[in-house]
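A quick aside before the break. I want you to see a complete sequence-to-structure record at least once, exactly as it would be stored in a machine-readable document. Don't worry about memorizing anything.
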Amino acid sequence: MGNFGSAVLRPLKNFNIEARAHRELERQKIKSVSAPRYKQPEVTQGQEERESDPVTNSKDELLHERLKVVRVESVGPANKPFKNPKLPDRSTSLPEPEYGVVEPANVPPGRVTISQALNLISQHQTDPKLYSASHIAREYKLELHNAQQILKYFQVFHMHIPKKMEEKFPHLLTVLKSQMSQMESERQRRLLDFAKEAKNPSKKEILEKDIQKS
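That is the input. The structure line, written in tokens, reads:
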């Protein structure tokens, strides 16, 4: 009922709406009144005397000449000139990080770096009995629960070759096996280097010390 009533009354409301709008605007123009203008403060007697005094409005040449000979002398120790700190003399840039992120030299217990995580995962996949979760937790100072979760949910990449590709490219498997053996030997070498660096100061620590000394 409400929609029907509004549909009936809408034409009556909009009848001659433009003329009514113009009349309302003209009525507002007539009613509009400008803001009142406030009176300016009266000029006092002292202000009139200052404005009419020729000494105040004139320039004293003698005082102007005296200002030219004024000198300001500072007393006390002179400020030392600022010297730029000595920059390091190293002209070579630091080596690029292996995984795109500079790994910290000191790793707190319960944490591992990216390279350490890849090493422990690959160790477990190579020999699960020798590199068990308890062994990895002791070696890398991790909690046993965290080590178990890492070995359960994370793995290194596996290469899968379809049988059709093996039949089509029989020499491909031989090439891949040789590359995998090279990668495995490289991984073993890195593991040995990592074990040595755990006992001796790392290269990063030596570089950081050199930079601090320079």
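Two observations worth writing down. The first helix runs from residue 2 to 13. The radius of gyration is 45 Å. We'll return to this after the break.
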